[in-house]
Design brief:
The protein is α+β, with helices and mostly antiparallel strands. It is built from five helices and 18 strands. The chain is globular.
Length: 302
């Protein structure tokens, strides 16, 4: 089975009007398997959510984290059980903070890397210079409130270029939720494989370690590889509000370019010889415009 993760959310412990209790209620109502509490520069909401979760019988699991909000970009840690000081922050060597968070058992991601910066929102654009991604788990390639072409598009392309250059990084999405809203419908979420009754946080860690996450609005593009072929298939995860198209197009991107295939009937098989050593699969509706992107699937490595 696949589990849905909402890895970027805020409450009135930082800059959002909704309470911890309202965030839990919203996530449970929308069928989320695991959500992260990532308030700006504080873990003050952790004990409140733990208390509410202990007192109530809720169907959703919480990941306790934080979002480092700096003048040079945002580092989102959907799992960070304790406050890790960030006096080591250095825009020219952010590896110091990523490493400190990883040593504390955290999961680390780069949030909305191409968000508008000055003069609109100082610090939202990621301007730190990373030379070593070994302590970075993922890039938030989709930040749902941001424009798809001007902000999320460059984030997708940056992640793709890093992957094709040999960096092993997962892709994730975030609602960057600040208020109670029905706008989660037809928006991107992060998915990972799991077991019924399994611990969603452990399953997320395992997925990130293997770069086996999906970013999707409601249908996942899955693949299985044998010694001779790769079989692609569509899997409906029934995300609330997903608008089902009549046609699906699969694309494969490698260093030489990107090819498109019709997968409207739900499956497609290609010989392994037709694939490069590294391929990035994506799923679109009818056209290949980013506005019709449905899913970014795990990278294929031969």
């Amino acid at each position: 089975m696949f589990k849905r993760y909402e890895l970027h959310n805020h409450t009135n412990e930082s800059d959002a009007p909704i309470s911890c209790a309202e965030l839990i209620e919203l996530m449970a109502e929308d069928g989320v398997d695991c959500f992260a509490l990532t308030d700006h520069n504080t873990v003050s909401g952790h004990y409140k959510v733990r208390r509410i979760m202990a007192e109530q019988d809720v169907s959703v699991q919480c990941a306790y984290g934080m979002e480092y909000t700096t003048y040079f970009g945002h580092i989102v840690c959907p799992v960070l059980e304790r406050y890790v000081p960030w006096d080591c922050i250095d825009r020219h060597k952010p590896e110091l903070l990523f490493k400190a968070c990883k040593e504390a058992g955290g999961i680390t991601g780069i949030a909305h890397p191409f968000s508008y910066g000055e003069p609109f929102a100082k610090g939202c654009r990621f301007e730190m210079k990373i030379s070593d991604f070994s302590d970075v788990d993922y890039i938030e390639i989709i930040n749902n409130p941001e424009p798809i072409h001007t902000v999320n598009g460059p984030a997708i392309r940056w992640w793709e270029q890093l992957v094709l250059d040999g960096v092993r990084l997962s892709a994730c999405a975030g609602m960057d939720l600040h208020k109670r809203t029905d706008l989660m419908a037809n928006r991107f979420a992060t998915y990972a494989e799991g077991e019924v009754g399994g611990d969603a946080l452990n399953e997320l860690r395992a997925a990130l370690a293997k770069q086996r996450t999906w970013v999707s609005r409601g249908v996942l593009l899955t693949w299985e590889m044998t010694e001779e072929q790769v079989r692609f298939a569509l899997c409906d995860v029934k995300k609330p509000g997903f608008a089902y198209p009549s046609k699906y197009t699969l694309t494969l991107k490698n260093r030489e370019g990107e090819r498109a295939f019709d997968i409207s009937d739900g499956t497609l098989t290609l010989p392994l010889s037709a694939l490069a050593d590294v391929e990035i699969p994506k799923l679109y509706e009818d056209s290949l415009d980013l506005a019709e992107l449905v899913c970014v699937a795990p990278v294929i490595r031969k």
